[in-house]
Known about the structure:
By secondary structure, the chain is an alpha/beta fold. It has helices spanning about 45-60, 75-80, 95-100, 110-125, 155-160, 180-185, 200-220, 230-240, 315-330, 330-335, 360-370; strands at about 20-25, 25-35, 65-70, 135-140, 150, 170, 190-200, 245-255, 265, 270-275, 280-285, 285-290, 295, 305-315, 340-345, 350-355, 370-375, 380-385. Helices cover about 30% and strands about 25% of the residues.
Amino acid sequence: xxxxxxxxxxxxxxxxxxxxxxxxxxxxxxxxxxxxxxxxxxxxxxxxxxxxxxxxxxxxxxxxxxxxxxxxxxxxxxxxxxxxxxxxxxxxxxxxxxxxxxxxxxxxxxxxxxxxxxxxxxxxxxxxxxxxxxxxxxxxxxxxxxxxxxxxxxxxxxxxxxxxxxxxxxxxxxxxxxxxxxxxxxxxxxxxxxxxxxxxxxxxxxxxxxxxxxxxxxxxxxxxxxxxxxxxxxxxxxxxxxxxxxxxxxxxxxxxxxxxxxxxxxxxxxxxxxxxxxxxxxxxxxxxxxxxxxxxxxxxxxxxxxxxxxxxxxxxxxxxxxxxxxxxxxxxxxxxxxxxxxxxxxxxxxxxxxxxxxxxxxxxxxxxxxxxxxxxxxxxxxxxxxxxxxxxxxxxxxxxxxx
Length: 403
Ligand SMILES: [Zn+2]
């Protein structure tokens, strides 16, 4: 499948960082939508253009403000995912701080310059905020399939995502280091990544448009009574996701190293069920088989990217209820005293788990509490999780405080 998109014939001067702004006269939530962080995913920018056109025509009252921003302008002009580095994998605070401190533009790569400029636009939007900040990151995938929400697993993000009638994937955001949504989430804001469908499918534009309207209604910026099309947009999302479980959790990620010749078998769409041992791809060392039963997500059908595929599985409502309860009673404080578990000596939001002592149940409990395994240090798993409480609501390069 081609990695190129129809947007490839634009020049950088045709594409503006700020797609549009609406509202801002009344206090209320700020909804920031970013589209095109990957340059071969034009659907989000086209959808935002439609939203702003409609807002300008209808002029409904809005509490707070909606801002639409373009991600990787240079990559969009070439129709490529990125030019030199993935703009949605380099938002760790230390790296950003380095970029912002750099006073020599010539030393920065193309995505570094995009990041500095985009950071500036986001900071301005956040600085004007008079209420809760909601951040929506709009993407598409190289495979076909129903749309879905990708969530950094905090209770506030869960609460917002439940307003969308779309499958929600837990544990995926945590697997992808350095995402913009992850960075904004760590600042204490409500964030959501949204995958609308295949990159060049015109339906992906409509799905993204419906998502933005539902997101505005869910944030309280827009009232249903002022926007007669609300039901139609909700119904469009329901229809697009028919037959897919509501909440799923990542069970496995297949990492692809440079030059291993990874080739996904043709015909996989997002959420396609597979049995244990099913061959889903080949690389230079032979067939790639799934380690357990589940559903395929984000199969790699483009040349750029390191995630071969993900395996997800349904989470039953009981576990969601239990996990919300465990977080509510701050079970994480008690979890530190479970056998084989101790706090990480340097990181406040991380725990060290000895896999020889801790039972699988312990690891399942950590998942429920929003912890994901990030690394192995001295034979111990490092489990870490996102901030669960909002910080001061401003955009800064410093990580959120250690609460
Ligand atoms: Zn993307």
